[in-house]
Amino acid sequence: MLRFRPAHWIALLALLLSLALLGGRGIWDPDEGRYTNVALNMLDSGDWINPRRSDEVGHWTKPPLTYWAIASSVAVFGPNPWAARLPAALSYLLCIFLAWRIARRLRPGSEDQAALVYATMLFTVGAAQLITTDYVLAACSTLALSGFVEARFGAARPRAWIALMWAGFGLAFMAKGPPGLLPLIAVLAYDLVMPGRSGHRVLQWSGLLLFVLLALPWYVAVILNNPGLFRYFIGDEVVNRVTTNEFGRHGEWYGWLSIYAPTLLLGTLPWTPALLRWARALPPGLRGWWRDPAQRAADAAWLLPTLWLLLPLLVFCLSRSRMPLYILPLFTPLAVLIAMQRMREGRGLPSPKWLVAWCVLLLALQAAVAFWPTHKDASKWAGALRTQARAPIREVVFVEDMARYGLHLHLGTSTHIEKIALQPVPQSPFNRVYDELLEQELAEHEPDSVWVCKQARWPEIRDRIAAAGHRATPFGGYRDRVFFRVDAAPR
């Protein structure tokens, strides 16, 4: 049956892998909890312009497109992990479809393999179960390159497809800022090295105007309303992330090798052998493209995805901020190249039995992750708090501890999460480590608040609260933490 209608079976397989166990576990902190918390604050407050970690603290490390997607999904499907992860799953499905379209244009006949490769790679399936900005970015940048491929390899309306490309880049810029434009390097390089091109249609005014209209209004609005924010965006979120290890993201000279090599080799399973065969044949191909314009023209279908993969990857390797998910947008050209390589070798789609076995393994891994006991699961923290508090919870205050922002979803969207410090610490006003100091939080006298601290620091924190004229009363705990409430001390 797979032989007769492969595209339909691939689509059903992708739906199963992306949606079946999407809500099988709670929100994991810190990353899933942080993104979900910001999106819920937008939904609660009605302010969709200013991302906020809490009522007092903004969250400016990422543009808002992912938060908008999560908030919209929760508004439609309710406050649950499935809805919060749905934007990532839909981005995965869109990337599969776009990989199919791109491969069909570049090498007709390889499209089903490209879709299947993307749908079943270990990294792409795993990332589809995570709340992250990187999958939304991957979908937007893949949309942009799909428009470029249609313009260069299709037959009709190239200007319209270039406009779509710029729309994709505009959305990518709203998903993660300047990293969303990295595939543009490959686009410009491809046009530059292809023989016989007298101009670059990618710079058409209609497309650039569309990019400006999609990408810039939000940045202009928040920068005008927040003095100093532009300097933070450029200095911290661009320059420092690229040139320093300030954020502790594997900035050592060998960090690119320790992060990206395993991601590429293990993340492309079970298709890694085809990737290695393509990589082995790459050096002579590059020499031929460098020396012979006619060879570049003949191999245009190979040259474009190769540039799309290698040029952004080089930038990621040179940058001193490195994480596996950063290269998720590069798995689309990887899927296309793997499919084209297998087609060149005369390899067809794998047998249905082999494919079913691999997909069962992927689903088993997803189920194992859902049942894996970890302190990161905010649903377990929420269960412990509900059981032991036995009273409404409107706010959870973490004192000198990692804030579990996933509690915002699991305890109810009206619950607020804060992180406070005992002593002042140097911090950027646009990327604060702590929301406020202990004494400031005590002065607010907010009702129905639950406080959390590490058990080892409980005596110190209890005494500090007493010295401020309040009384801390413990009522339970979870994972070496103390749960307590704070009241005014009796006179």
Topology:
Blueprint: H1 6-19, H2 31-45, H3 65-77, H4 81-106, H5 111-120, H6 122-127, H7 133-153, H8 158-176, H9 182-193, H10 205-225, H11 229-243, H12 255-267, H13 272-291, H14 293-298, H15 300-318, H16 331-344, H17 352-371, H18 378-389, E1 395-399, H19 407-410, E2 416-421, E3 436-437, H20 438-444, E4 449-454, H21 458-467, E5 470-478, E6 481-488
Parallel strand pairs: 1-2, 1-4, 2-3
Antiparallel strand pairs: 4-6, 5-6
Helix pairs in contact: 1-4, 1-5, 2-3, 3-4, 4-5, 4-7, 4-16, 5-16, 7-8, 8-10, 9-15, 13-16, 15-16
Give an overview of the whole structure.
There is one protein chain. This protein has 491 residues and is α/β, with parallel strands linked by helices. The chain is 60% helix and 7% strand. It is built from 21 helices and 6 strands. It has helices at 6-19, 31-45, 65-77, 81-106, 111-120, 122-127, 133-153, 158-176, 182-193, 205-225, 229-243, 255-267, 272-291, 293-298, 300-318, 331-344, 352-371, 378-389, 407-410, 438-444, 458-467; strands spanning 395-399, 416-421, 436-437, 449-454, 470-478, 481-488. Strands 3-2-1-4-6-5 form a 6-stranded mixed β-sheet, sandwiched between helices. Helix 19 (407-410) links the parallel strand 1 (395-399) and strand 2. Helix 3 crosses helix 4. The model has no long low-confidence stretch (mean pLDDT 93).
